[in-house]
Write a structure and sequence with these properties.
The protein is of the alpha/beta class. The chain contains 29 helices and 29 strands. It binds pyridoxal-5'-phosphate. Pyridoxal-5'-phosphate (PLP) binds next to helix 8, helix 24 and helix 25.
């Protein structure tokens, strides 16, 4: 049997081998790098200009365009030269050492496996819903640009997320077109003998067979699994049908496929990642399977295997509300994973449940996937500074008695893959000032380079963008209206809506109530007055889906559509249906101001506002998520007071008024105030600052470098240390941890004295360590910071070790007088080099 080296090949039935040169077109089309690298656009446009504009899907184009047309073009020498040149460049760039190879040549990091329920990479591959997939897709692309060795792991959905139709009366309809794998830019993963690579999961009753696919993203690969295998029990074939649809059962099975199946796939491919990045808790079962594989290799029990492997797991949490965590009833976990726990992991079902519950005695709690992710990772982070803070609150129950700011959750603020979101003309402008390779390494020089653009040049660039945008909006709207049966007169009218000279506000995002998409509708008469001011008119473009189960969200769409239907509004507000990546790309390139109105702190990060930066639009947003750390008065506008007001209608009303004021008094006047050349100088100045300062900072270029240097490299080192020699260090840690668990309850502060000597305090304490050694613990003096400053943590020194390990240990410390004496308190925590407290062991003893 020659099954050793799986590789990918396109679905051969659809591949005309007799057409010389077709394989080159296929090689380009199957590489999603062409979704952001505009260099190949011309190749596709020549095949079928109309279809290209409509779909931006090269692989789909190759399936659809007539063979005659393809062979004519391939026979054309200019076309062929262009194609050969692109192929040569593509292959060269795959071999060129990237930022990672240059900056971290001898690191312990060979592979990061990036697990995510969704990836938003291209319109041609609709396996995403929104923000989470956006983060995953954009990070994968930046990993390619920087040469960071990441492989993605996800699911290939037969239907994916729903597509949106909107009725004339504003009702949303969800439809589910079939994702035909033959038309998607994916290739089946095959063994060397041509056999399709399949992964087997032993679920109770029926095994599940999973088919494996590969997506090429430049030099980076994304592996996808789907359950639509004919050998499966028929209902199981639908597991990977819809994204975020179905019941808890189905969701659990999807997560089993992603986490357990995904890790098994890597094993089958011979990939041994040092680091596993869990993009949200959905993927947390990978923790179990990774530990199981380690058990299998080393013969260690589950506890030690988890200690070894968790050091290499990185968890990013994305939700800002408790309800956002994925949870499953314990009975469901027992049903699907009981046997796996008992037989494969060698642990009891209760031990498994405890990994996803608040505390071991909470056996009836739902199983929380984010808790499992925290307990199985060596580093945890939120997606903005504010969200880090919010997450420390959300996860505090896992770390009882620990101060909030020591809950071990940091943050890596999100970014976007700038080359995917810049328009062709923005790309041109940035290339002129910052060079072609501007996103392939560190970006420190970009700020200065962008500042060199003149007001006039910036304004000409924006003026052209507005023109392009209005043309696009009209075309899109006409198609949309015709499809929903609008009267001919209205369709004709649609061809003249909007004006490229008018200030354009954009609002597009998921219609969920906390995002307050209806904030602008708070006072419809005032909004109408703003829009229709004859001297300084405003137009508003909107888009967004509401989850099919979110009726409140759907009602907000209806509210807008009905507002827009009024004849006096129609010229000024357009709602485009079926918000997806393609539409999003046009919106972020075309609007002047991007609005965002969430209730703080529920927008964990938000990314759409980052996409407009490179294109020169300006953000007007609630001080929430990324904007809370990005905002300053000279680069955009802020809404809210930086405080939390929950779901308070009175506060919403106040913010709506503030939003109208801001538009009337600042945004609109600044846009329409022109110098003698017609340039809005203050506006372009603000725009330039936003472009220069924020674009690099909120790019996945910065994000992936940060993850690499602050998370992946330390995680790879830690995993290497713990796993070496069949997990020797992990085994030692497991023994130590067990000792700590056994002895901890008997630990006691026996007495503490303090006296002042001049400007110093001298503390002395006797501590009973209950058989632990002084090097097993840190005895600390702790005081809260003054005026919100950092807390004081001073390590006390063990002065005297008694002969009897059960006896009293004497600790002493002299500290300068900073607080009053009574503000100091003593605490004891477990301590071990290379081991993280409280993430891995959450014990703490306070003096009182
Ligand atoms: C960027 C994007 C999102 C996420 O944007 P938010 O600001 O997080 O709402 C969602 N959907 C699409 C299609 C996008 O392009």
């Amino acid at each position: 049997m020659d099954k050793q080296t799986p590789s990918s090949s396109p679905l051969t039935a659809l591949f005309p081998r007799d057409l010389e040169g077709f394989d080159l077109l296929a090689e380009l089309a199957l590489d999603l790098r062409c979704s952001w690298n505009h260099a190949t656009d011309d190749i596709w446009r020549q095949l079928d200009p109309e279809l290209w504009e409509l779909t931006h899907n090269p692989w789909g184009l190759l399936q659809t365009v007539s063979r005659d047309q393809i062979s004519t073009l391939l026979a054309d020498s200019a076309y062929r030269t262009q194609l050969d040149e692109l192929i040569k460049k593509k292959r060269e760039s795959a071999k060129t050492p990237g930022w990672f190879q240059k900056n971290h040549p001898k690191s312990a990091l060979n592979t990061v496996a990036y697990f995510s329920m969704e990836f938003m990479l291209s319109d041609a591959l609709p396996i995403y819903s929104g923000g989470l997939g956006n983060v995953a897709g954009d990070q994968l692309k930046a990993a390619n640009d920087l040469g960071v060795p990441v492989v993605g792991v996800g699911l290939l959905y037969q239907q994916g997320y729903f597509r949106q139709l909107i009725d004339n009366d504003g009702s949303q309809k969800a439809v589910y077109p079939y994702n035909d794998p033959g038309q998607l830019p994916v290739s089946p993963l095959r063994h060397a003998n041509g056999e399709w690579l399949r992964i087997k999961l032993d679920l109770p009753g029926h095994p599940i067979w999973l088919r494996a696919w590969q997506v090429q993203v430049g030099r980076t690969k994304l592996y996808l699994l789907d359950s639509n295998d004919t050998a499966n029990y028929a209902p199981f074939r639908a597991i990977t049908s819809e994204l975020y649809g179905g019941s808890a059962d189905l969701r659990l099975m999807q997560e089993l496929v992603l986490g357990i199946g995904g890790w098994r796939l890597l094993e089958a491919l011979g990939i041994e990642p040092e680091v596993c990045h869990l993009n949200e808790g959905h993927a947390a079962f990978a923790i179990l399977e990774r530990a199981r594989c380690f058990m299998h290799k080393t013969g260690l029990p589950f506890a030690a295997a988890l200690i070894a492997t968790r050091a290499g797991n990185v968890f990013t949490t994305h939700t800002a509300v408790e309800a956002g965590f994925d949870r499953f009833p314990p009975a469901l976990i027992e049903q699907w994973l009981g046997k796996y726990a008992n037989v494969e992991l060698g642990i009891s079902t209760n031990d498994l449940l405890a990994l996803g519950q608040e505390a071991p005695n909470h056996l009836t709690d739902d199983f929380n996937m984010a808790y499992l992710a925290v307990r199985g990772s060596g580093a945890v982070n939120g997606v903005s500074a504010l969200h880090g803070e919010v997450s420390r609150r959300l996860f505090a129950p896992l770390f009882p008695r620990w101060p909030l700011n020591e809950i071990p959750i940091g943050h890596v603020t999100n970014g976007v893959h700038t080359p995917s979101w810049d328009s062709a003309s923005a790309d041109e402008l940035w290339t002129k000032f910052c060079g072609k390779d501007r996103w392939l390494g560190a970006t420190d020089h970009l700020e200065k380079s962008i500042r060199a653009i003149s007001n006039t040049e910036l304004w000409n660039f924006r003026t052209a963008a507005s023109q392009t945008f209005v043309t696009y909006v009209r075309e899109h709207l006409v198609r949309q209206m015709a499809a929903s049966g609008a009267p001919q007169t209205e369709i004709e009218e649609a061809q003249h809506l909007f004006d490229p000279k008018v200030l354009t506000l954009g609002f597009a995002r998921r219609f969920a109530t906390y995002k307050r998409p209806n904030l602008l509708l708070h006072d419809p008469a005032r909004l109408l007055k703003i829009l229709t001011n004859p001297e300084r008119p405003v137009q508003l473009i909107m888009a967004g889906k509401a989850h099919p189960a979110d009726l409140a969200g759907q009602a907000l769409i209806k509210q807008w559509v009905q507002f827009i239907r009024q004849p006096q509004v129609r010229q000024h507000v357009i709602f485009l249906s079926d918000y997806d990546m393609l539409l999003s790309g046009h919106l972020v390139a075309g609007v002047d101001v991007w609005l965002n109105t969430p209730q703080r702190p529920w927008e964990a990060s938000g990314t759409s506002g980052m996409k407009v930066l490179v294109n020169g639009a300006i953000n007007l947003s609630e001080l929430d998520g990324w904007w809370a750390e990005a905002y300053s008065p000279d680069i955009g506008w802020a809404l809210g007071d930086g405080q939390e007001h929950g779901n308070d209608p009175a506060w919403d009303a106040q913010e709506a008024e503030a939003l109208y004021d801001l538009l009337e008094q600042e945004v609109i006047p600044e846009f329409y105030q022109r110098d003698s050349n017609g340039v809005p100088v203050e506006w372009t100045t603000r725009m330039r600052e936003s472009m220069a300062r924020l674009t690099p900072q909120f790019s996945t270029n910065r994000v992936v470098r940060e993850y690499t240097e602050q998370r992946y490299l330390p995680a790879a080192e830690a995993f290497k240390t713990r796993s070496a020699d069949n997990g020797k260090v992990a085994e030692q840690i497991a023994d130590w941890q067990q000792t700590i668990e056994q002895q901890w309850a008997g630990l006691r502060v026996d007495g503490i004295t303090a006296r002042q000597e001049g400007e110093q305090f001298i503390f002395a304490a006797t501590v009973l360590l209950n058989g632990l050694a002084p090097h097993d613990v840190s005895v600390e003096l702790y005081a809260n910071g003054i005026d919100g400053g950092d807390e004081i943590r001073e390590l006390m020194e063990c002065m005297d070790v008694p002969d009897d390990k059960m006896g009293a240990h004497l600790y002493r410390l002299t500290v300068p007088e900073r607080q009053t004496l009574s503000e100091y308190t003593l605490r004891i925590i477990p301590h071990r080099e290379g081991f993280s407290t409280p993430l891995e062991v959450n014990h703490i003893v306070w003096e009182h």
